[in-house]
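Encode chain A's predicted structure.
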Amino acid sequence: MNQMQPVLLAFCELSPKSQASARACVISVWRDEFKTDIQSAMAAFRKNLHSSINNGNYISYALRTLQTIKRIESDETYLDKLIEENLLMFSLEGDMYLFMQRRFVSEEKIQA
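Encoded structure for chain A:
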């Protein structure tokens, strides 16, 4: 079966309105990933509290991620640079494309 290839645009190719939507989409994805990471850490804590406490990676990773989220929410220039350096691609409307899952972020919300 031939599936239709999605139209993908770089951030700089989007209209200003779509760029704003793309920024919001990227921030939303970062927040969702952070929530998932915290839930995984909580499950690991419940499973083996002692090894989790002795492993400082959970806490330091969570702090770094939270600091990054706060920065991309408050610094549009930094967010734009992050988007461009990571070569993120978007639809015409500004929905981020997830290459590994071969779908747009908005498709997850429709299926849920």
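The chain has a mean pLDDT of 85.
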